[in-house]
Design a protein that fits this description.
single chain, alpha/beta, Rossmann fold, 2 domains, nine-stranded mixed beta sheet, two-stranded antiparallel ribbon, 13 helices, 11 strands, elongated
Length: 395
């Protein structure tokens, strides 16, 4: 109680631990209830000449206490928000730190997920939505009530949704050219493209290793020459040793782009017989390169909190025909494309894919407001692309 009295003397100071903030909120709600009761009493028994002065003074004090309640919950929300952003640890006060896992530790903190979500949204009321906070506090005090955090939360959440909707990129319809990879790539000037994102045929689709090597050598360096010095390259491939060796031989012997990582796309929802002498395959390699003038990777839209995107292994289920529409055995999930496009490009950038297949990469690029161009010669694949809303260019 003495600690609370000391804090009340310094209203600009709020506790910095979860438990102290919860006590602080409860304490101030009791204060506010007393002030609201005093306001009602003034209206009933005070002399008219003194009633207005007494009421106005009490009203202003009630407003201040209401602000302290909402600001304390905003501080609580900021702590919880920082915990989820940083993933592992957050200062717990007095030099201590606490482990944080949202599902487990919220219960330990005696906070429900609903309360956590509300508090995290209310953190915006201390700055961006200060006017919203004051409007609802004043309205509640005039009604003779404690400010309802749910009202402020709901209104701020609605405003945030409207902002996100307004900021969403305007979709651009992708264009597919029904032609081979070489003719398609030669449509572009050297160093004119922002991103190469493609999933070419795998080694298993060729009659021999030599045929596959000829295929890879025929397009990779040409495609690289079209990418800007500030651009990036993502090439999906299988995990067969000879296949990886072929691409590594090409990519390590060029000097224009840095081979930064061999990323892993892992999936565990495939079915089928397991090999008797080896292990069942559940991943694809993704060769990731960047130009020597490239900037840092972008945060993934407003999903910077999703720390798994920072790892070189991306675990995302493959499109599953048992639960969703799957157009092809080799079809990639939209989410993997979305992450790479967000990380590596900006709205309006040009993305190319010389091996469109069912069109997933181009569809995602267009939805995110990127210019998307691709090539495909398989007539069945072109039918699927047209069905999915991609524009097939007919000369």
């Amino acid at each position: 109680m003495n600690e609370m009295k000391e804090i009340i003397k310094r209203p600009e100071t709020l506790p910095d631990t979860i438990e102290a903030l919860k006590k602080f909120i409860d304490f101030n709600e009791e204060r506010l209830n007393a002030l609201l009761a005093k306001m009602r009493a003034i209206n009933k028994v005070a002399e008219p000449s003194r009633a207005k002065i007494l009421f106005d003074n009490t009203y202003e004090e009630a407003i201040d206490v209401g602000v302290q309640i909402i600001d304390a919950e905003a501080r609580l929300g900021q702590i919880l928000y920082d915990m989820t952003q940083r993933g592992e640890r957050h200062p717990g006060g007095r030099g201590k730190s606490i482990e944080f896992s949202e599902k487990i530790q919220l219960k330990d903190l005696n906070i429900t997920t609903t309360q956590s979500a509300r508090a995290q949204m209310l953190r915006l009321a201390k700055g961006k939505y200060f006017d919203v906070k004051m409007k609802f506090i004043e309205r509640a005090i005039k009604r003779g009530e404690i400010p309802r955090r749910t009202e402020i939360y709901s209104h701020i959440k609605k405003l945030e949704r409207e902002i996100i909707k307004a900021e969403r990129p305007r979709p651009i319809q992708p264009i597919i050219y029904p032609e081979d990879k070489i003719k398609f790539l030669n449509r572009f000037d050297d160093k004119s493209v922002d991103m190469l994102l493609t999933d070419p045929p795998y080694m298993t689709e060729f009659k021999s290793k030599g045929e596959f090597e000829k295929f890879a050598n025929g397009w990779v360096l040409l495609a690289i020459s079209k990418i800007k010095d500030t651009g990036r390259i993502y090439i999906f491939t299988g995990n067969y040793p000879e296949e990886l060796h072929t691409y590594l031989s090409i990519l390590l012997n060029q000097n224009d782009f840095v081979l930064s990582n061999i990323l892993i796309w892992g999936y565990f929802n495939t079915i089928g017989p397991s090999p008797k002498m080896g292990y069942k395959q559940s991943w694809n390699a993704v060769f990731y390169l960047y130009g020597k003038g490239a900037s840092e990777l972008n945060p993934s839209e407003k999903r910077e909190r999703n720390l798994i995107e920072k790892f070189d292994t991306q675990i995302i289920s493959a499109p599953d025909g048992r639960h969703e529409i799957r157009y092809s055995t080799f079809q990639k999930p939209e989410e993997i494309a979305r992450r790479f496009i967000w990380h590596s490009t900006n709205e309006g950038d040009l993305i190319i894919d010389p091996f469109v297949g069912t069109g997933t990469f181009l569809l995602v690029a267009g939805e995110l407001g990127r210019e998307a161009r691709g090539a495909e010669i398989d007539k069945e694949m072109l039918k699927i692309c047209r069905k999915r809303g991609l524009f097939i260019y007919e000369s």
